[in-house]
Design a protein that fits this description.
Length: 336
């Protein structure tokens, strides 16, 4: 593809106000339509996350200022920079920092960005692989590090991963398995995703309905730790089943924002509920996570977790991920 000049049109998925509601569509814009930030990136890939599905479909109120370019992730190469820490040719990625919420995001062939948002792509990853990991994999790593930081080891018992067939869950299984943990994968699609989850390193499968129910304040102690992407009754049951001084890393709310539980797991078993925020995490935590991903990620597993789709398919893909029809990760080729 020929290099674009400052005045050339390029493609972006832009959410605009249509009859009082955010509606995203493919638009052609120029660099002059981008914010005046210090670093200009030629984007190669973005990703599809649940939040992206809500933003593109207009169903979730994600875009809080309009018009706004959607996409919470991006990876590409710097073409211009006014910052001494980054130079043209550097390969960089961005996760979060309000992209697609209050800041223009990664569903664009170019983007201008604040240098403090940027992380250099580890040498071991291509831009495509970095986005196959994306916010979902980076969030998974933050969850795994929360478990490690709590002193939980494979000898302490199995780890439960909920929403296991999704982006965060699938990468979490691969990472935890690589670290030697026995992983129980909970999913609402055991029949269709069970073999896939076992291939990633899960040792047992658990149907979601076993957790998505009214639970007792305390139940049989099973899990040394939990990575929860679902919330609501699933999280409540997981807490009730977590072992003494276990830790639950909660990073999602696909099942809802409620938490119908009591203080019993916390004050009678010393269970810790560790919230994981990937959007505004410090650069220190981000760099630690990406450095660990470079060491731990199984590229053979990664290759089975994701597929690449063109940016033009985003409206359809957005509805699919909201409906729970997406398995693993979807990388978005913004130049296709």
């Amino acid at each position: 593809m020929e290099k674009l000049t400052m005045n050339d049109l390029f493609n972006a998925i832009v959410a605009e106000d249509v009859d009082g509601r955010a509606k995203a569509s493919l638009k052609q814009i120029t660099v002059h339509d981008l914010p005046d930030e210090d670093v200009l990136v030629d984007i190669d890939y973005s990703t599809l996350n649940y939040k992206d599905g809500l933003a593109v479909s207009g169903k979730g109120g994600i875009c809080r200022t309009l018009p706004l370019i959607c996409g919470i992730d991006l990876a590409g190469t710097i073409s211009e920079s006014r910052d001494e820490n980054f130079k043209p040719g550097d390969r960089v990625l961005v996760n979060g920092f309000g992209l697609s919420e209050t800041q223009n995001g990664g569903y664009s062939q170019k983007q201008k960005l604040k240098p403090e948002w940027l992380v250099k792509i580890p040498e071991t990853f291509s831009a495509e692989q970095a986005m196959a990991i994306g916010t979902a994999g980076y969030t998974s790593m933050l969850c795994v590090q929360a478990i490690q930081d709590a002193g939980i080891t494979p000898e302490d018992g199995p780890v439960l991963v909920t929403g296991a067939a999704g982006g965060v869950g699938s990468v979490a299984i691969s990472l935890l398995s690589k670290l030697g943990f026995a992983v129980t994968a909970s999913t609402g699609r055991v029949d269709t995703t069970g073999d896939f989850l076992l291939s990633l390193g899960a040792t047992e499968l658990l149907a979601r309905e076993e957790l998505a129910r009214d639970s007792k304040p305390l139940e049989k102690e099973i899990w040394a730790a939990v990575v929860d992407t679902v919330g609501d009754t699933v999280l409540a049951t997981a807490l009730a089943q977590t072992k003494y001084e276990g830790v639950v890393a909660a990073c999602g709310l696909a099942g809802g924002m409620n938490l119908p539980t009591s203080v019993a797991p916390f004050i009678l078993r010393g269970v810790s509920l560790r919230g994981i925020d990937s959007v505004m995490a410090s650069q220190e935590r981000r760099q630690r996570a990406w450095d660990s991903l470079a060491e731990l990620i199984d590229k053979d597993h990664l290759a089975t977790i994701y597929r690449v789709e063109p940016m033009t398919s985003l409206p359809e893909l957005a509805n699919q991920i909201i409906a729970g029809e997406i398995r693993g990760r979807v990388v978005i080729d913004v130049n296709a």
